[in-house]
Design brief:
The chain is an alpha/beta fold. It is built from 18 helices and 14 strands.
Amino acid sequence: MTTFASGTAASNSKDGVTRDALTVLQPGFTGTTAPDWLLRRLGEGLASVGLFGRNIVSAEQLTALTARLRAERDDVLVAIDEEAGDVTRLEVRTGSSFPGNHALGAVDDPELTRQVALELGRRLAACGVNLDWAPSADVNSDPANPVIGVRSFGADQDLVARHTAAYVTGLQAAGVAACTKHFPGHGDTAVDSHHAMPRIDATADVLGARELVPFRAAIAAGTRAVMSAHILVPALDPARPATLSRTVLTDLLRGELGYEGLIVTDGMEMQAISATYGIEHGSVLAIAAGADAICVGGGLSDEATVRRLRDALVAAVRSGELPEERLADAARRVRALARWTATTKPAPADPALTDIGLVAARRALHVTRVDSGTPLTAAPFVASFAPVANIAVGTETPWGVAAELTRLLPGTETGTFTGEDAGERALAAAGDRRIVAVVRDEHRHPWMGRALDVLLGARPDTIVVEMGVPQAPPRGALHLATHGAARVCGIAAAEAMTPR
């Protein structure tokens, strides 16, 4: 077992620079057990490991995995992209037991948000996870945003701020470091940075009054980490995206906002960086700009990637492109967070919070009776109109209401439809059964709206369930807005459709 000192004296040697270069990386891997190369790198200085859905089968398996990592290095940072709601890794195969941010924002009870984050954090800590790349503090000011949506608490910066602070407080009370993202704010974008470089053309005054408000609240609440966004904000830096901008990370985040914790990059293999700068040069620029940890592993998850990034950082120090002191400072901040997680005791289980996720999902459900909607008394046909999922959400996690309706009304049938003739195909498949139409962000997908037109024209008793951001006008005999597609949101909707 290896434990590393928190100082930077080792940086005065060639081996110290190499160790520091490993320390600032947060790589991923494939499989549900730790590969030999990862364990070896932990012994050489690697301080963090990132987990994704591909690494998790069950809580028991995850606990064994993190224990094996800690047998090699007892203060390792084990990070996960667990936002709950639509973006879940802990329950990637079943759907989350907790609603996402948009549902919590719809309730607008910060104490409920704190309790949800506390229980989520307790479950993560029980499995050995001590750094969560959450919460999303983005203000969803563009309703057409293709990547944030229900991952945001809402479109009002003050609402987002109070829930971001509550989430940070709850998560860290469980001994799990929060990583508030995506600085300086990804909500006003029409492009997904997984695919290309988004640009926000808001003025500095607008950014200060809108995007930065939740981050100020997170910093005041003591967030231990902040994640940068791969977005170009010309009002702040016309040349480089936030992740690579000294103006954004050092002058604004560290200087103006007074933040002293860890700065983590978003995934460096995302196209916004990899297709423009390359991950090696991009990682050098990010550390030079003020980032402390390089997140990579959502897509690239092999030893060769770790070696490439380590060598690029070492070469940059030797060439003078990256000051050795900046790399040493970044590594020091990583070790400081590792020390905090290693010495913070997780909160004990609170039986009163066991079902807090379902409680929150029920409170978030909005029911609009457009017509004289009657509850379901016989097994329906559930027509799910499925958009292409963004990469953050992924395609592995089930969503919808079919499973819960099947439990309540055995014999329920279901089908998934997409495209211009989705409505006609769903109508034909339903036969004479009552239809439950499930949509996700109808306002962003014209074909989805046309499908509902077809169904409601022929079958006005159709029930509509919106599991994304409810921007389109409510319609149907009964319209339910869940504000997210987590498993508990499906349970809450199914309950509302069936008689008690």
